[in-house]
Amino acid sequence: MKKALAFLTASVMALGSLPFLSVGAESFAPGDVDMDGVITGHDTALVSRHLARGDNSLSRKQLELADYNGDGVVDQTDVEAIHENEVWELGDVDMDNDADMDDALVIFQEYSYIASGKNPIPDALTDVQKNLADMAGKCTVATEVTLDDSFDCLVIFSLRSAGRSDEVFPVVNGQKCYFFDNPYENDLEIIVK
Ligand SMILES: [Ca+2]
Ligand SMILES: [Ca+2]
Ligand SMILES: [Ca+2]
């Protein structure tokens, strides 16, 4: 019995000495907060929303990935650094380096397929694309697109087309944010004046 206990203790200690991220988990680059393998505007949106609203429930591992500069604190410095390293900007769902009306249509088409029960289809959106469609920065894991996502994309495109880009992302406590607050979805101050 004593021997068995000693063996058990040794096994537990050996497990405990393994690097944290290699135990039954893939490793991800700092800043890849949604863990889809690439740094995009959605990673920026998740961290920005976490700081400004605190309502998107990042996991412990995601908070570690959000600490881009590894100084032990998740703050605006990390948000800006992740933003600078984005491969695709938020909303660029078709990944053609331009967030515009086409992206809203891609989301709408995908939503239509889901709503009509035609999914999965061969050209269904990848996790990276689904994440790029979450402009509110609320989905910490890739989830199917919604009609709201398509509408958000359209509103952002419309504001930019009207020369009102500074109204797309909110400013919270004097801090520039990188997620979209749909004025029709919550009771926050309506940004379309
Ligand atoms: Ca990512
Ligand atoms: Ca940091
Ligand atoms: Ca696009």
What does this structure look like?
- The chain has 193 residues and is mainly α.
- The protein has a domain at 52-61 and 87-176: Type 1 dockerin domain (Orthogonal Bundle).
- It contains 7 helices and 2 strands.
- The chain has a two-stranded antiparallel ribbon.
- Helix 2 packs antiparallel against helix 4 (76-84).
- The chain is globular, with a radius of gyration of 20 Å.
- 34% of the residues are buried.
- One calcium ion is lined by residues 92, 94, 96, 98-100, 102-103.
Overview features:
193 residues; mainly alpha; two-stranded antiparallel ribbon; 7 helices; 2 strands; binds calcium ion
Q: What's the tally of helices?
A: 7
The overall pLDDT average reads 86
The hetero molecules present are: calcium ion
Proportion of helical residues = 40-55%
Order of helices and strands: HHHHHHHEE
- Could you tell me the CATH topology label of the domain at 52-61 and 87-176: Type 1 dockerin domain
- In order across it, which strands form the biggest sheet? 1-2
Strand content: under 5%
CATH architecture of the domain at 52-61 and 87-176: Orthogonal Bundle
Which structural class is indicated by helix and strand composition? mainly alpha
The outline comes out as globular
Could you name the ranges where pLDDT drops below 50 across 5 or more consecutive residues? 7-24
Distance between the termini: 74 Å
How would a textbook summarize the main sheet? 2 strands, antiparallel
CATH class of the domain at 52-61 and 87-176: Mainly Alpha
Q: Rg to the nearest angstrom?
A: 20 Å
